[in-house]
Amino acid sequence: MGALRWFSLFFFFICLSCGVAQAERRVALVVGNSAYKSVARLTNPSNDAALVGAMFKKAGFDWVDARTDLNGAEMRKALRDFGARARDADVAVIYYAGHGIELDGTNYLIPIDATLETDSDVLDETVGLDRALFAVEPAKQLRLIILDACRDNPFAKTMKRTVAARAIGRGLAKVELTSPNTMIAFAAKAGSTASDGDSRNSPFAAALVERLPIPGLDLRKAFGFVRDDVLKSTGYKQEPYVYGSLGGDDVPLVAAKPVVTAPQPNPQDAVRRDYELALQIGTREVWAAFLAQYPDGFYASLAKGQLNRIAAEEARAAATEKARLAEEEKARLAADRAQKAEQDKAAAAAKAAENARIAAEKAKQVEEARAAAAEQRRKEAEAAVAKALADKAVAEKALADKIANDKAAAELAAKEAAARKAQDGGELKVATVAPTSSQPSLSPQEMAKAVQTELRRVGCLSAPADGDWKASSQRSLAMFNKYAGTKLEANNATIDALDAVKAKPGRVCPLICDRGFRADGDNCVKIACRAGYRVNDDNECEKVQDKKPTASRDQSRARDAERKSDEAAPAKPQSSGQMICNQAGCRPVARGCRLVADSTAGIGNAAGISGRSREVCN
């Protein structure tokens, strides 16, 4: 018996060590670069990195390193350290969110301190995607890189080209992988850009945390669901893409959980049980602890109501105690034959205390009524949720039964038709059974809305998809026929039109912009000209010509009138700058005259003044 016991213990330890050895070791590196120094800050990468890092930790990864806003040296060190961790791991995952660039068919990740003034700076200031592939290569079973770096890159617009033939692509370039069991997931297909979204996280990151951690779900199928979610949330403008291949076995990021046959508990059951327990105790400390554990939600509102009820009860008790003390003071003063003023003062205090007690009593009653009403609403809400879940289960079962019955009826009808044909023609023929659809047929309004949504995706419709097939929708389908080379009937929305438009992967109708705007991808942007230039009729910047001043007819008439007025005015006397004096006084010498020595008075052409000098005019 002793030998058997030692053998059993030895076998147990061997099995335990084998189980530990067979457990997968998973490691992940998460990087989100938002605070770029040379270009505008990105809003979502740091938020996306926090969200994805939390997802990996919740999924049970053995080691998760989440970093934000790394410069070039920090990114290279993080990849080097992660490569050392990947040597002992079965699964190695790298997630990067930020700016990336493609140069001559090679992809690079951009740190926050990069300036990239010229295309040659890419080799020195960025981190190549090959460096990330080198870091995950030691993993034994799965090597996965997720790049949310396909955003519209501002570096490519300002970068100077040192070689004219050097290609700088839009988005990231397609990757050809040589290592087995390696996958690279792009947020957008090669050559296209990804959207940053209008919310806290990008559409790609939101879809990743929703689909990847599903236990037992194969990665290829998970990324397929991510693709569908992103296409739907971006109006079919952004399509994620996966490069690489895996083997035939399913490769989930999170192992499948054991099958549980019992019904899963409602997540709110635990909150409800804690609320009912706190309701039985009913103290302020218990309700405060409940709110610390569950600060938000329906039950948190109920707990706050209970705290308000307790506060009202405490205020009522304090007012009652104050009134009792006032009555005792009044009785003491009366017994001690206090003065009338003191007795009146005590009586007034007692009356005020009594009024406060009555008010507190009423406040308590109001709070108790509110708490009772809230408790009733809670019970009604729980009953409504239970009824909705039961109705949903009944509806799902009815739909499944209907699909199964329709399929069985179709197969039976096909077999009967084949038997009749074989009996009538004397030979056995194989009947073709039309595949049944598990989806119900669309109504005309739903069909019109679906076709309008696809027409908006391919750029042929600018109006919203409202399900009303009007003249604008008919013109949009006619425009699609023109540029797609189809001959669809435009008066009505049909399933053929829906299939034809869905078959187009990108824009079909050209983007037409107003004067002063130019097409940039799927958007019209305003043309900005430098100082001294303006946009002409051909949407090109031309220099503004300086206009020479030209005289108008009114200006000529005014100038002629001024000239005639000057000519008609008497000439003003002009002087030569000399002065002549006599008995009448002094005056300037007239223009054209001069002073000469007066030897004889009144001779020649003199103006006639005797003295030392006289005025002579020619």
Automatic annotation (TrEMBL):
Amino acid composition bias (Basic and acidic residues), ranges on this chain: 540-569
GO terms for MF: cysteine-type endopeptidase activity
Keywords: Coiled coil, Signal
GO biological process: proteolysis
Pfam families xref list: Peptidase_C14 (PF00656)
Secretion signal span: 1-23
Coiled-coil annotated spans: 309-398
Region (Disordered) residue spans: 540-578
Protein name: Caspase family protein
Organism: Bradyrhizobium amphicarpaeae
